[in-house]
């Protein structure tokens, strides 16, 4: 198996970075018309900056208002909008589901993709895949693309204005990165792009975890005050770039599979991706039999920033064994990353780990 490492063509991050979007696109030879797939908050906070940056770069653009779910129907709706304006580039501006939708449109139409996250809520912006859900929020499938985004531009001023819960959810997603990548390496399984994990990807995944422990709480405090600080800059890079490269070129395991299983329960749909991944990581650590010290460190970090540590924290109370087994069965479906563990993973074993993790988290 060949070692494979993938990454976006260019990553730009900093205060008021949106005002440089047109210039950064021009450096890469990207021109209009541009379709901006925009979340509500992105349009509210960034529309003035788009007017200025695209005017200065001489780029025409059209804004498509994202409806809220990265579903096949929403992807098709945005694709029609791109075709109607003869778009040459698709820009996604908003949270992870907005960016997943914009990347799907760009891939379907074979257009350059630019990602402008307005929250550091997941590691989606740098990746060459999208997570597609049903209209009511249940996980359906991953879509894989032939290349990563052409440009990822992260405006930390916008991220500082986003709800603190989004940053925390991003930490939950990033928290699993090192543990899942290490599992894939130890098991000698393929990463998300079908190759062995390079030592650079593993190092980035580990740095992601170290940065979370060092800067997570301080970054959360900065967002609660709507300020941009060095700790926030480092944490945003960890949530977005380090986790993005670490998960895709490192690989996924049980934590993300448990997330997918949790989405089969309607009560979890109001919880964010990273919130469910955080609990999924605790399940993974229990399933793998990790030492108490490792579990303690992860749990204490979750408590410090407000991440879920038990089923009730993701909306599930008084589950029966059959309901837990339903989650575990989806988590261990054929093709799921749960099977990247270095041992055979069964639904029964995952169900036991979910129940045990829930008890540990509540205690």
Describe the protein in words.
The chain has 363 residues and is α/β, with parallel strands linked by helices. The protein folds into two domains: 151 residues, Rossmann fold; 191 residues, Dehydroquinate synthase-like - alpha domain (Dehydroquinate synthase-like, alpha domain). The strands form two sheets. The chain has a six-stranded parallel sheet, with helices on both faces. Strands 6-7 form a two-stranded antiparallel ribbon. The longest helix is centred in the middle third of the chain and has 26 residues. It is globular and about 60 Å long. The N and C termini lie far apart (43 Å).
Could you list some keywords that capture this structure?
6-stranded parallel β-sheet; 363 residues; 13 helices; Dehydroquinate synthase-like, alpha domain; Rossmann fold; two-stranded antiparallel sheet; alpha/beta; 53% helix
SS-based class? alpha/beta
CATH architecture verdict of the largest domain: Up-down Bundle
CATH level-1 class of the largest domain:
Mainly Alpha
Q: Report the end-to-end length measured between terminal Cα atoms.
A: 43 Å
The helix/strand order is EHEHEHEHEEEEHHHHHHHHH
User: What is the mean pLDDT?
Assistant: 95
CATH H level, superfamily name of the largest domain? Dehydroquinate synthase-like - alpha domain
Query: How many separate structural domains?
Result: 2
Looking at how many chains there are and whether they match, the oligomeric state comes to single chain
Portion in helices: 40-55%
Biggest beta sheet summary: 6 strands, parallel
What Rg, in angstroms, do the CA atoms define?
A: 19 Å
The percentage of residues in β strands lies in 5-15%
What is the count of helical runs?
A: 13
The residue ranges in which pLDDT falls below 50 over 5 or more consecutive positions are: none
Q: Strand arrangement, largest sheet? A: 1-8-5-4-2-3
Shape: globular
What is the number of beta strands?
8
